[in-house]
Specification:
By secondary structure, the chain is an all-beta fold. The protein contains no helices and 8 strands. The strands form 2 sheets. Strands 1, 4, 7 and 8 form a 4-stranded mixed beta sheet that branches. It has a 4-stranded antiparallel beta sheet with strand order 3-2-5-6, with no helix packed on it.
Length: 109
C-alpha cells in the first residue's frame, strides 16, 4: 500500500486495527454515505487497509461493520477535490450478548 499522504486526488484510505491487539482486521465492510445515499462500499484487505477512489467532494459518513465487532460510524468527514484523506479506525470486539439479532432471521424459535 502507498505511504499515507501520497494518495491520489479525491481518495480516502486508512487502516482498521483491533483495539486491543493492534492487529489488522480483515474483511471489514466500509461504507461511504453522502447525504443519505450510499456512494461506495469496500472491504479491508488482509492488512486491514481500505481505500475509496474518486469520491465526490462533500461531507460523508463512514460506517465500519464486521460480524463480532461493534459498528463504528464516523460522521462529518469532509472530502475535498484533489485532496487525499486518511481515516484509521480501531475496532472493538463485541460480546455475544451485545449483538442485536436481525429482525429478518427466525433461527428456529
Amino acid at each position: 500500500m502507498a505511504n499515507p499522504g501520497e494518495g491520489k486526488k479525491d481518495e480516502i484510505n486508512g487502516l482498521v486495527i483491533h483495539s486491543v491487539t493492534k492487529k489488522p482486521v480483515k474483511d471489514v465492510c466500509v461504507t461511504a454515505v453522502l447525504v443519505s445515499k450510499k456512494e461506495q462500499v469496500v472491504a479491508t484487505d488482509e492488512y486491514g487497509g481500505y481505500n475509496f477512489n474518486e469520491l465526490k467532494p462533500g461531507t460523508y459518513k463512514f460506517i465500519f461493520e464486521k460480524s463480532g465487532y461493534r459498528k463504528i460510524t464516523k460522521e462529518k468527514i469532509v472530502i475535498k477535490t484533489d485532496e487525499a484523506f486518511q481515516l484509521n479506525i480501531e475496532m472493538i470486539e463485541a460480546p455475544e450478548f451485545d449483538i442485536i439479532p436481525s429482525p429478518f432471521g427466525h433461527g428456529g424459535f
